[in-house]
User: What shape does this take?
Amino acid sequence: MLTDFFFQLRDGGVPVSVKEWLALLHGLEANVAQYRVEDFYYLARTVLVKNEAHYDRFDRVFAAYFKAVASVPDALVAQIPAEWLRRQAELNLTDEEKAAIQALGGWEKLMETLRQRLEEQKGRHQGGSKWIGTAGTSPFGAHGFNPEGVRIGQEGSRNRRAVKVWDERQYRNLDDRLELGTRNIKVALRRLRKFAREGAAEELDLDDTVRSTARNAGWLDIRMVPERHNAVKVLLFVDIGGSMDDHVKVCEELFSAARSEFKHLEHFYFHNCVYETVWKDNRRRNSERHPVLDVIHKYPADYKLVFVGDATMSPYEISYPGGSVEHHNEEPGAAWMQRLLDVYQKAAWINPQPEDRWGYYDSVGLLRSIMGGRMFPLTLEGLDRAMRELVR
Assistant: This one.
């Protein structure tokens, strides 16, 4: 069975050798990892991955290969994993039933009701529309449905309507070395060019040298051209995690193309909306953050400002203090967005979500208004429009 896993790792860009694979099999024979997929995951990653830069590739292949496997039962003892039973508790409602469930009526009301529930509730609860629990229509809990709620104790988003999430998530960095599918994006980004002379007075023109040598019957004819670089400076803010997980591949292609096209590119990550801090490395997002005010003071106003995100979130995250799903923000996201836009006049928001779906989310409309209408879809045509806006 695991032979296919070996070849999928190789196909996924993880340089696994036969020697390392045999070491993993010896570890399994020695019962280093027994009946939990988590144990096998850590054993396999330790043995097979030599460079932590390949962790993301390994995780993607592992998740795709093992899918929803939660445990490996003993050959002699058949047991039903508890995770299977928990998933059965997830509530599935029709569109009509969802429409009949009423929201509590605003951020203040939602938070006040949560405080009351925490004081009143004494034990676990499943189903129903009031208490903090699972598989119900209460605004608080997991694996249920409510048009605005606080998600507590659930692995990930199901309906993408949670107002606040009380789970620590781990986001991975975008792979800027990804080349497949980036060629057309690079062509679109090339509209944002302003060449300047830098460095050496001349550099080798390889293409012209090959042509000239061929025309010269094989005698080497070296051709030189003035060295030029794209002098455009870009400040890139990328939304990561949550609903953006659906768009990782196309965002990686955009990120890779941008790193290739722009010599002066500074990137930062945020989640859903920009607040008082951003970060450069998702593995250290809780320990190494950069204040947005420091970013504004460090990078001058001639930088082009580009946001990449699906803008899909609770409107409270944009409009209310404390609306962030991950921390208590003293000021609303809209205030920090406006501070950036006041400094960087040339700005665009690139949205990987199809443009025909934007109207279904109030948050998209709010951010589009803050951007002054400068939101563009992450398509070749949309990128072309965005680049034209930035050079206007």
